[in-house]
Specification:
Blueprint lengths: L1 H20 L32 E6 L6 E6 L3 E6 L14 E4 L5 E7 L4 E6 L4 E5 L5
GO molecular function: nucleotide binding; protein serine/threonine kinase activity
Protein name: Phosphoinositide 3-kinase regulatory subunit
InterPro entries: Vps15-like, WD40/YVTN_repeat-like_dom_sf, WD40_repeat_dom_sf, WD40_rpt
Amino acid sequence: MELRNLVTRMQQKFQKSLRSNDDNVEASEDLLTPATWRPGNQLLAYLHEHKARVNQLVRMPAHRNLFGSCSDDGTVRLWDASKLQGHAYVNKSKSMYNRSAGPVISLAACEGGHSLVAATQEGSIFVLRLDSGS
């Protein structure tokens, strides 16, 4: 939900920038962000703990504020979206898993969002069960 709120804020920022850049737009006209809008090349949050390219982000349906990330650095990290501070360099992951099996190229939520399944470039697949107590 927090990730969705972050995307909504970025959409509102996009709308505001459209209004300020277009002199022909009347104040009463309501601009809508296209339904296909995605953050694209805009920085939403700096995930500095990854030491290489982030390959995928996955929201966790069973854990409202959490999302996972996987990276070429071989790690899978769990983040709390409610604690991200945009461009700040202080964003810290909630937990980290490193199997030392090479770059993690794909990540998906499974078991109703209680687990993550990750795949490495070398072909290994592993499942991480999220424990709500840890």
